Amino acid sequence: MNVSLLRLANWLSNPPRLLQDVLLHFKPDLPLETRLALDLFPRPNYAYGVYRAATQARALGIGGISAVELGVGQGEGLLALEAVASEVEKATGVRVATFGFDLGEGLPAPQDYRDLPYLYAPGYYQLDLATLRARLKRSQLVLGDVSQTVPKYLDDRPPPIGFVAFDLDFYSSTVAALKLFESADSERYLPRVMCYFDDIANEQALQTRYTGELLAVSEFNAHHPTIKIDRITGFEYSRLIRDVWNIKMYVCHFFDHPRYNAHIMKEAADYVPPLKA
Q1: Domain boundaries along the sequence of the chain
Q2: What is the mean pLDDT of each run of 10 residues along the chain (277 residues)?
Q3: Cβ within 8 Å of residue 59, ≥6 positions away
Q4: CATH assignment of 31-259?
């Protein structure tokens, strides 16, 4: 079977993908909530995370949030993030500031086995800074080692963090990036920050909880009794279309946040408006 036939077979054998393509072609103006439910975004994980963060902020009377990508690579994720941010702003009235963190030189050298050196090598995912800057419309690039840029970012007092995508590949880099959640000022965060961990389910990497991002998360939880990061239990079963990104969605709970216990009914609502005729 040639490549074209193989692609056609894969497409026809995937009814959800077929449905998505048909809807995008014939119904490009579907409501935001419908497109969220049907994963009709280039990065549905980003769209879901930013939207949930914005609706939480709106329910709490917070006018603006930050959406952060840690590990920009070629920049497609950051471009998708700022596009989603613009749509979510219009739908919710909550301003969304977008930030992209990257070393700017590709991956550094792995420090030890926890950084999965059998999978990653120095220089991977090199950022073409000039090309990306020309394409970005609203995002702020933060270049440098996250161990230094994350503390400075918090000192600059951005809007409360509502969504973070972790895509730094390494255990060591993720440990440094998780300091994003260690500010003593609770106003730097929403009570529950939506998180996406990209590098926890890769068949080639054979990830376990003893290396990489999962180890970094486990150690963070062990050292922070009132801040916990965990998967959204059963999230994949709540989706109309299940995909691998579902098991990569996490939430960082700030249990001692002064507004953590504020009752927010609409935040948990699962409403999808009907398709327009």
Answers
A1: 31-259
A2: 54 55 63 90 96 96 98 94 96 97 93 94 90 94 96 95 96 97 95 96 82 96 98 92 93 97 72 53
A3: 264, 265, 266, 267
A4: 3.40.50.150
